[in-house]
Design goal:
Layout: E1 2-5, H1 6-11, H2 13-21, E2 26-30, E3 33-38, H3 47-55, H4 60-73, H5 75-80
């Protein structure tokens, strides 16, 4: 785990993002105190979207649009986004 000051991160933000993209976690400090942690985002697999949609039902038009797209794409979508 790398430690960088807030000033260093602000001056080298692209580099800090590159490190996070490659799996490194960076602790950002200010005046010697931990301020934040920058790290790689977790990869999504659709479970969070499925849970969100279960709690927040889409309106009829949206549901029809999704159904139309799934029909157009056929088995390709079913293989990547199973209903189960």
């Amino acid at each position: 785990m790398k430690t960088m000051t807030a000033t260093d991160v602000s001056r080298n933000f692209a580099s800090a993002l590159d490190r996070a993209e490659h799996g490194e976690t960076i602790v950002i400090t200010r005046a010697g105190r931990r301020l934040a942690v920058l790290g790689p985002a977790s990869a999504g697999n659709g479970a969070a979207l499925k849970e969100f949609l279960a709690d927040h039902r889409p309106d009829r038009d949206f549901a029809e649009d999704i159904s139309s797209v799934r029909t157009l794409l056929g088995d390709e979508v079913s293989a990547q986004w199973p209903d189960a």
